[in-house]
């Protein structure tokens, strides 16, 4: 099985370039995208540059970290008291961004 | 939340006794779910069992007598909008969910006119404004309990919360934050129980949300693991032998290398469809959705691992394999659809553990679910045109450049449309006939991209769409938008196929009675002969259907149930009264005729032979007796 698969990888790497993007001209296994004719390889600095704001791109990760932290306090509080409290500000000792004490 | 408890059960069926006996036994909850699912009286998860076959062994309702199917009882959820998914039945209880505000009900099947409990959460109404396609929810999950904790019911909320409720009382046990609507992340997926964990996906790729799946401890809500669809390998949770049997799919570092810069951070790949699980290999399966934005020119690269079929180890969350079906998606062919598990002989006569997945891109894929080997990839309809073929040896789709999309170009007559030839409908597999019963969309589109900036919490699509019936429909009159087909994954043949007026959006259910049930957008529950596709019976419901049928048994009688309540993506024009054909991400134009056939509603309709029920067995069932408190 593995030998067959490696053979496929070798065959893919030898594929001739397509005249237009058809998705079969791979630069590496699992990496087969190529720009369409007259479109850039990279969009940064081109007329299609989305000009992403790094601060905006970071917001999802920051939000997840904050939610996970509040959840950790909820779990900790339920383990301590046996009752669930959603509002973390009502959990004794809660500190935004802080780590709940060890169980 | 507001929770009301109506009354306790006064009648206990043999099934409920069996469930109680199982409760407290040393068997793991995982095993208990398997055992509960073996009893055809129950419907314990969205796909009936871990194989997600939506198949029932019951034969009381069959080809010969289905003409006598009549309404037995019904229940209004009190909520309009799209009712996707299906109710659950465990023992004497039916658990019913609703779209936003995601009210949950437990009904007493001994007297379904009685609401045992209801749990209505108070949610931030802003959640409605960041939902891409109506305010749907796809269902509940059930955990049968163990020796320290009674059974639980799990619900996702549009505002991003996962909630554990006591199955007996409806009281909240815990509530965790999983998704933040301020960054556009919502929840519409049905949770999924494996062992002592509940799995939850994510929604919001149309707002640039980076997708992830998270496992929580059922009892405490503690996070066990989280795995993303894009980004560094450690955040993807790739096993050390990831894709080793199929290295040509790609292996490591591609979650970043196939994106330009940090675009993977807003790259989509949410999973809001369905899960399946094989306890023997401890792998669960699901699909990651479309990359963001839809405008492909803005995101060079294969955009891994959006659009992938994943096989992950449930205990650790580690990915053993992933196969990307639509690299560098250009059409919103979000790959989240149902994964149906079967065991069949392949063309060489070898018995294989299979996974069959009808994808949005119009291809039905079948993989060996133990290692990810691609076994077949067939067009759902011969009108699929974005791809010429899928190479089984490389796994690559051979695209037809004529139907590619790009900036400064309006692509025309692309089939399927962004809605796919198959969407979120939970389909079924008939193991006797070795046929997958597929509810299909027959919709094509024109597509014109535009540039836009990413702002967290705002829509991030970048394309204008016109949708219309496919070549086999009536484009002039806006009808012929769906099909129903019976597919053999080994031969690649369709045993039969029929056209429908609108998309068969909700999915199908097959039974050993030789019947295939499904609901239609224009509001019919239909039963077809599973061998021929002949229409044997139908009933007009109060509103259109976007959920899938289920069947259960109570006191020895088989019932068929289905949600009514038109909405979801195909219903956004109707439910929000929109007229611009490009609104609703293009669905308004495609379904412009829907309002001529149905209007909003919301509830469950239950059928039995001759309409027999607890109320015809004893007309006094449910009557108030002076002195009773219920």
Automatic annotation (TrEMBL), chain A:
This chain's function reads: Catalyzes the oxidation of primary alcohols including methanol.
**Any signal peptide, and if so, which residues?**
1-20
Q: Which InterPro entries match?
A: Meth_DH_bsu (IPR003420), Meth_DH_bsu_sf (IPR036557)
Highest classification ranks of the organism: Bacteria, Pseudomonadati, Pseudomonadota, Alphaproteobacteria, Rhodobacterales
Family from the record: Belongs to the methanol dehydrogenase subunit 2 family.
| Name this polypeptide is given | Methanol dehydrogenase [cytochrome c] subunit 2
| EC numbers on record | 1.1.2.7
Question: What UniProt keywords are attached to this protein's entry?
Answer: Methanol utilization, Oxidoreductase, Signal
Q: Where is this region: Disordered?
A: 35-56
Q: Which reaction does it catalyse?
A: 2 Fe(III)-[cytochrome cL] + a primary alcohol = 2 Fe(II)-[cytochrome cL] + an aldehyde + 2 H(+)
Subunit comment for this entry? Heterotetramer composed of 2 alpha and 2 beta subunits.
Task: Give the enzyme class.
Answer: oxidoreductase
Q: Which domain of life is it from?
A: Bacteria
Question: Can the keyword Signal be found in this entry's annotation?
Answer: yes
TrEMBL record, chain B:
Q: What keywords is this UniProt entry annotated with?
A: Metal-binding, Oxidoreductase, PQQ, Signal
Domain (Pyrrolo-quinoline quinone repeat): residue spans on this chain: 43-374, 503-560
Q: Does the keyword Repeat apply?
A: no
Among Pfam families, the record links this protein to: PQQ
Q: Which cofactor does it need?
A: pyrroloquinoline quinone
Q: Where is the signal peptide?
A: 1-29
Q: List the InterPro entries.
A: PQQ_b-propeller_rpt, PQQ_MeOH/EtOH_DH, PQQ_rpt_dom, Quinoprotein_ADH-like_sf, Quinoprotein_DH_CS
Xref: SUPFAM superfamilies: Quinoprotein alcohol dehydrogenase-like
**Which PANTHER family does the entry link to?**
QUINOPROTEIN ALCOHOL DEHYDROGENASE (CYTOCHROME C) (PTHR32303), QUINOPROTEIN GLUCOSE DEHYDROGENASE (PTHR32303:SF4)
Q: Which family does it belong to?
A: Belongs to the bacterial PQQ dehydrogenase family.
From the Swiss-Prot or TrEMBL record, give the protein name: Methanol dehydrogenase
